[in-house]
Amino acid sequence: MKFNYTDTATSPFQADDTDLLTEDIFPFSLVVWNDDVNSFDWVIETLMEVCDHTPEQAEQCSLIIHYKGKCSVKRGDYDTLKPMCEAITGRGIGATIEMMVGT
């Protein structure tokens, strides 16, 4: 949902309200964690199959996971992310669901 107002002085919405709307719609994040066990190919394949990532998205996420230790691979509501998290952990890859704070 996007609001476009030409006169911000009379607008009931400010730029920060858009961020709040996004947080309310997608309050949770699916985080995948780095380990020394799983290969890049396995993580990429998992992200493509479980999270419906493109090959490029999955590769970028796997690099972030490797170098930063974790990566938020998907945002959404808890009920949507829970089966994805279970599918990823079922493949031996560490994943958690975290509530987004101050995005």
What does this structure look like?
The protein has 103 residues and is α+β, with helices and mostly antiparallel strands. It has a domain of 63 residues. It has four helices and three strands. The protein has a three-stranded antiparallel β-sheet with strand order 2-1-3. The longest helix is centred in the middle third of the chain and has 14 residues. The chain is globular, with a radius of gyration of 17 Å. The protein starts with 14 loop residues before the first helix and ends with a strand.
Short recap of the structure:
The chain has 103 residues and is α+β, with helices and mostly antiparallel strands. Helix content is 49%, strand content 17%.
What are the SSEs and their pairings?
Elements: H1 15-25, E1 28-33, H2 40-51, H3 55-68, E2 70-76, H4 78-90, E3 95-99
Antiparallel strand pairs: 1-2, 1-3
Mean pLDDT: 84
Order of helices and strands: HEHHEHE
Q: What is the subunit organization of this protein?
A: single chain
Q: How many strands, what sense, and barrel or not for the largest sheet?
A: 3 strands, antiparallel
**Backbone CA Rg:** 17 Å
Content-based structural category: alpha+beta
Strand content: 15-25%
Q: Helical amount among residues, as a percent range?
A: 40-55%
Number of strands: 3
| Distinct helical segment count | 4
Features:
globular, 3 strands
